[in-house]
Write a structure and sequence with these properties.
Keywords: DNA damage, DNA repair, DNA replication, Ligase, Magnesium, Manganese, Metal-binding, NAD, Zinc. Belongs to the NAD-dependent DNA ligase family. LigA subfamily. This protein is of the alpha+beta class. The protein has a 5-stranded antiparallel beta sheet with strand order 12-11-10-13-14, with no helix packed on it. A hairpin with a 5-residue loop joins strand 15 and strand 16 (about 505). The protein binds nicotinamide-adenine-dinucleotide and zinc ion.
C-alpha cells in the first residue's frame, strides 16, 4: 500500500530549539532521505527491531518521537526514490513488530491514524458532532463476555489474532468479571496509573531491576510476566463495544459505565469538541495531562453515530472514522556538563547528568537520570554532548539524542567507574543496577555488618532484605536504631508486593523472633559493639584489641590519639582516624548505651598471689595462638564461630592470630598434615588438639 501524503508527515515531533521540526512539514520535505541504500536498509532494520521490542517487551529501543521520525524519514526516502517497500512498517498493526496469538478477533483490532494537525482540523470540520476522548497510553485488549460473564481477554497482537491474557487481567480495576446480560465484546486500554507504577517499580527494585522506562513499557513488561507478580496493578478503560452496534458511541459508553466499566471518556469527560477550533479542545485536554495520574499520549476524535461510522469505513491498519492527535513530547536542547555518581542508601549506583539548566515544559531541568551503566554506554552520551532533555510523561527528566555534529573534538567515550568511587571496592554487577555493599558506602552494608554473626551483634533472622526494608522506610538509619524497633513496626514492615499485588508484611512470628534476638544482642561483648559501628580500622581484630585495652566504651571514648596509637598495630595515623570517628559516632553510641547495650566493664584486678592470665608466658606477655580447622571435637568450643574462638583466646590473655610464623607460640589444630601444621612443625611450634586446648583453658595451665 502506498501512503497518502498526509500519512508521511512526522507525528509527535518535539518542539523548540534546535530539535524543532515542524508539524506542518510538506510531504517528503525536511524529512530528508538516506545517503545510501545501506543506510536505508539499516534504518528499516532498526525500526523493525524497535517495533518488535515495543510490541513484545518492556524495552524501549528508541523513544516514540525518534521512532516516528525514523518512520517518516523511511517513508520520505521511499517516496523520493520510488521504492516499493518490502517491509510492513507502514501498514501493519504494530508496524510489523506485533506477534499474533491463540485468540482470533471477531473483527480486526486496529491502530489509529495520527495524520497531523491539519488533517485533524479537516476531520473536525467534516464531522462537527465528533467526540473527543483521551488517548490512553497502554496496551489494547479485547474482552469477550458471554451471558454477562467475562470469558476471554486477548491482546491486540497482529490485529487478527492475539495472545490470551484472560487470567492475567481478571480482577483488573475498571473491568468487571460480571456485567450485564448477553454476549458482547468490549475493547479498551490496559494501562498503569502512577500509583500502581510506583508499586510495580518497587517489585522491580526488590529484584535489582531498573524501574520501567515509562508506564506503557510497564504494562508490556508486566503483562509478559506470566507468574502474576504484578497482578492487580493494571487498570482498564473501555473505548469501544459491540453491545449495541446500532447505537451512538456515547450511548454505548454510558451503558458500559452503568455496568461497572471504566471508559476512556469517563476519565476526562468534560472536553467538548468545538468543530471550529478542534485544536483548542485538544489543547485543553492536553493541559490536564500532568495531573491525570496516568499516561495520556494523545486525543482521539471519533464520529458518534453508527451511520457515520459505516459511511466512513475502515482502512487496512486503522479505521477511517477516527483520528488521533499525538501530543508532542516537549524537549529542549542542552549540554551535559558532567556525569555524576551517587551511591544510594541501599548501595545502588545511580548515574545522572548535570545539565546546563534549561526550561522544559514550564520548569527548569538541571539534572537528568542516566539510568544505569548499560543504558549510558549503549546511548554513547558523553560529557560535553548536546542532548535533548525531556520529561516523557514521567517526573524524572531524561536526556537522549546526543548530537554527533555538535560533539567537541576532544570528546571521549564515557567510562564507567572501575571500582566504587567512594570506597574503591569492586561493584556487585549481578543486576542492571550496580551496587556497592561495603559498610562505608551504604547504610545497607553497615547494617548487614552490624548484625552479622562474625563481626557484629549476631542478630539471627535480620537478613539483608529485612535490613533494606527497614532502611527504605527510614526506620533504621544507623545501628542504634535497631534497638529501638517495636514489635509492631517489625510485624507490619512492608516487604514488597506479593504475587497477587497485595503487600507482604514481615508478620508477627518473625517479628517476635527478631525482637528476642535484638534483646539478646544487647549483651554482646564490647569488641562487637565497637565493630558494629563500622568505623574505619576497627574490624574484628582491632575491635578486640581496643576492647581488651580500654575495657569500657567510656574509656575508649576518652582515649587520646596517642593512647589509641599505643594499641598494637594501630599507630598514629590510624589512631587519628579512629579518634575522629569515635567523636562522630557519639550520638550513635549514646543511643546504644541508652538502649541498654553492653558498654564493657573494667576487669577485676588480679588478687595478689593469683595466677596470671591463662594464655600468657611466664613473663606475662600474651601467648600468640593460631586456631585452624574445626574445633567441633571439643564440646566447649564447638558452638563458637571463628570470631568466638578468637574472642575466647583474648579473654584468656592470649593473642589470636590467623597465620603461623616465628612469633607463634601455639597452634590449635585437629588435622595433622595441613599446611599450617607442617609450618608449625618446621618452626618447632607447640601443637595441641582442640580438646587439649579446651582442657588448657579449663585448667588455667598453658
Ligand atoms: N518507541 C518505539 O520504539 C516504538 C516502536 C513502535 C511503535 N511505537 C509507537 O507506537 C505507535 C503505534 O502503536 P499503536 O498502533 O499501538 O498505538 P497508537 O499509539 O498509534 O494508537 C492506537 C491505539 O491507541 C489505543 N487507544 C487509547 N485510547 C484510545 C481511545 N480513546 N480510543 C481508541 N483507541 C485508543 C488503542 O489501544 C489503539 O490500539 C507509533 O506511533 C509509535 O509512536 C514506538
Ligand atoms: Zn563503595
Amino acid at each position: 500500500m502506498s501512503l497518502s501524503p498526509q500519512n508521511r508527515q512526522p507525528v509527535g515531533v518535539p518542539v523548540g530549539g534546535q530539535f524543532a521540526a515542524t508539524n506542518h512539514a510538506e510531504p517528503g520535505i525536511g524529512l530528508g532521505t538516506f545517503a545510501s541504500t545501506e543506510e536505508y536498509d539499516a534504518a528499516v532494520t532498526n525500526a523493525l527491531s524497535a517495533a518488535r521490542a515495543y510490541e513484545r517487551t518492556d524495552i524501549e529501543e528508541m523513544t516514540d518521537t525518534d521512532f516516528d521520525r525514523l518512520l517518516a524519514k523511511i517513508a520520505s526516502h521511499e517516496a523520493a526514490n520510488g521504492i516499493q517497500p518490502a517491509h510492513d512498517l507502514h501498514d501493519s498493526v504494530g508496524h510489523g513488530g506485533a506477534a499474533g496469538g491463540d485468540v482470533e478477533h471477531a473483527t480486526m483490532m486496529k491502530s489509529l491514524d495520527k495524520p497531523g494537525e491539519d488533517a485533524v482540523i479537516e476531520f473536525a470540520a467534516k464531522h462537527p458532532k465528533a467526540v473527543i476522548e483521551p488517548k490512553i497510553d497502554g496496551l489494547a485488549i479485547s474482552v469477550k463476555y458471554e451471558d454477562g460473564r467475562m470469558v476471554r481477554a486477548a491482546r491486540r497482537g497482529d490485529g487478527y489474532t492475539g495472545e490470551d491474557v484472560t487470567d492475567r487481567v481478571r480482577g483488573v480495576d475498571g473491568l468487571p468479571e460480571m456485567a450485564g446480560e448477553g454476549d458482547y465484546e468490549v475493547r479498551g486500554e490496559l494501562y498503569l496509573n502512577d500509583e500502581n507504577k510506583a508499586k510495580a517499580n518497587a517489585v522491580r527494585a526488590a529484584a535489582g531491576k531498573e524501574p520501567f522506562a515509562n508506564a506503557r513499557n510497564g504494562v508490556a513488561g508486566m503483562l509478559n510476566k506470566q507468574d502474576g507478580s504484578y497482578k492487580g496493578l493494571f487498570s482498564f478503560a473501555a473505548y469501544s463495544t459491540t453491545i449495541d452496534e446500532k447505537a451512538d458511541h456515547l450511548d454505548n459508553m454510558e451503558q458500559l459505565e452503568g455496568m461497572g466499566f471504566t471508559t476512556a471518556r469517563s476519565l476526562l469527560p468534560q472536553s467538548v469538541l468545538d468543530a471550529a477550533d478542534p485544536m483548542a479542545a485538544i489543547a485543553a485536554l492536553g493541559a490536564e495531562r500532568k495531573d491525570l495520574g496516568f499516561l495520556m499520549d494523545g486525543a482521539v476524535l471519533k464520529v458518534n453515530t453508527a451511520a457515520e461510522r459505516a459511511e466512513l469505513g475502515e482502512g487496512s491498519r486503522a479505521p477511517k472514522w477516527a483520528v488521533a492527535y499525538k501530543y508532542p513530547a516537549v524537549e529542549e536542547p542542552t549540554v551535559i556538563e558532567d556525569i555524576e555518581f551517587n551511591i544510594g542508601k541501599t548501595g545502588r549506583l545511580s548515574i545522572r547528568a548535570r545539565l546546563t539548566p534549561v526550561e522544559v515544559d514550564g520548569s527548569v531541568v538541571e539534572y537528568a537520570s542516566l539510568h544505569n551503566v548499560g543504558h549510558l554506554q549503549a546511548a554513547d552520551m558523553r560529557i560535553g554532548d548536546t542532548v535533548s532533555a525531556f520529561r516523557a510523561n514521567d517526573v524524572i527528566p531524561q536526556v537522549h539524542l546526543p548530537r554527533a555534529d555538535l560533539r567537541p573534538e576532544d570528546s571521549q567515550p564515557w567510562q564507567p567507574p572501575a571500582v566504587c568511587p567512594q570506597c574503591s571496592e569492586p561493584f556487585d554487577k549481578s543486576t542492571e543496577l550496580w551496587r556497592c555493599h561495603t559498610p562505608e558506602c551504604s547504610v545497607s552494608g553497615r547494617i548487614a555488618y552490624a548484625v552479622s554473626r562474625d563481626a557484629g551483634f549476631d542478630i539471627e533472622g535480620l537478613g539483608s532484605s529485612i535490613g533494606d526494608a527497614l532502611i527504605e522506610k527510614d526506620l533504621v538509619k544507623d545501628v542504634s536504631d535497631l534497638f529501638y524497633l517495636t514489635e509492631d513496626q517489625l510485624s507490619d514492615l512492608d516487604m514488597g508486593a506479593t504475587s497477587t499485588g497485595g503487600t507482604r508484611t514481615l508478620g508477627q512470628k518473625n517479628a517476635t523472633k527478631i525482637m528476642a534476638e535484638i534483646e539478646k544482642a544487647k549483651a554482646q561483648p564490647l569488641n562487637r559493639v565497637i565493630t558494629s559501628l563500622s568505623m574505619r580500622f576497627t574490624g574484628r581484630t582491632f575491635g578486640r584489641r581496643l576492647a581488651s585495652q580500654f575495657e569500657t566504651m567510656e574509656a575508649l571514648q576518652a582515649a587520646t590519639v596517642s593512647q589509641l596509637a599505643n594499641v598494637e598495630g594501630i599507630g598514629e595515623k590510624k589512631a587519628a582516624v579512629i579518634h575522629e570517628q569515635l567523636k562522630k559516632n557519639e550520638p550513635v553510641i549514646a543511643k546504644l548505651r541508652a538502649a541498654g547495650v553492653n558498654m564493657g566493664a573494667p576487669k577485676p584486678k588480679p588478687e595478689a598471689g593469683a595466677k596470671g592470665p591463662k594464655l600468657a608466658k611466664p613473663s606475662g606477655e600474651p601467648l600468640s595462638v593460631v586456631v585452624t580447622g574445626s574445633v567441633k571435637g571439643a564440646p566447649t568450643l564447638a558452638s563458637l564461630s571463628r570470631s568466638g574462638v578468637q574472642e575466647l583466646i583474648e579473654a584468656n590473655g592470649g593473642k589470636a592470630s590467623g597465620s603461623v610464623s616465628k612469633t607463634t607460640d601455639l597452634l590449635v589444630c585437629s588435622e595433622d598434615g595441613s599446611s599450617k601444621w607442617v609450618k608449625a612443625k618446621e618452626l618447632g611450634i607447640r601443637i595441641v588438639t582442640p580438646e587439649e586446648f579446651a582442657q588448657m583453658l579449663e585448667d588455667g595451665e598453658a
